[in-house]
Amino acid sequence: MQTTNTTSSWGWPARLLHWSIAAIILFQLGLGLYMTDFVSDVSEQFSLFQLHKSWGFVVFCLAVARVAWRLLNRRSPALPAAMPRWQKAASHASHGLLYLLILIMPLSGWVMSAASPTQDFLGIENRVFDLFAMPDPWVPGVAAIADAAEVVHAWSAWVMLAVLAVHVAAALKHHLVDRDDILARMSWGR
41-91: per-residue pLDDT in tens? Predict the structure, then answer.
């Protein structure tokens, strides 16, 4: 498997970043729902929030790496010639939205935590796997900023779920119905 992208296939770094981000995002969506809607023990919830923040940092770093790799490797596999124009437009739009969401979600989560007056009141740092603290530019916290970021974070999660569902359905349609190589060139083939 080649390193750089070609007109017929994605290179291994693009594939590795794609699947790593996908796995962590799915984990994060499940963890976010679990910790906010199903956990009532405060200490357990605190631990899960810290874990969620840490993996959010990882997603952001991988997203930046993915965007950088994409900018350095401008070549990309062409969509099938027989694919209708509206599907090509939908593909480009959904991929653009996914790139935007994988950056917005961790950023809005960080802003929400960093701007939280409660977090400052309790002296809680935003730590990444308890290795280092993320910057906290809002000391003391600003509730309006934290609240706005929380809305963005929650809505982004729901939009991410919807776009991912369409993304997976489209990939499966291409693989199982159209029998083209769209899925194979981002996974095991070509």
Answer: 999 999 999 999 999 999 999 999 999 999 998 888 889 888 999 999 999
Provide the CATH number for the domain around residue 96.
1.20.950
- How far is it, in rounded angstroms, from Cα 34 to Cα 100? 24
> CA-to-CA distance for 100 and 38, rounded, in angstroms?
28
> Which residue intervals of the chain are DSSP H helices?
12-37, 42-72, 85-114, 117-122, 143-172
Number of domains the chain is built from: 1
Q: What phi, psi does 69 have (nearest 5°)?
A: -65, -40
Q: What is the spatial distance between Cα 133 and Cα 169, in angstroms, rounded to a whole number? A: 39
> How far apart are the C-alpha atoms of 176 and 190, rounded to whole Å?
17
pTM (two decimals)? 0.91
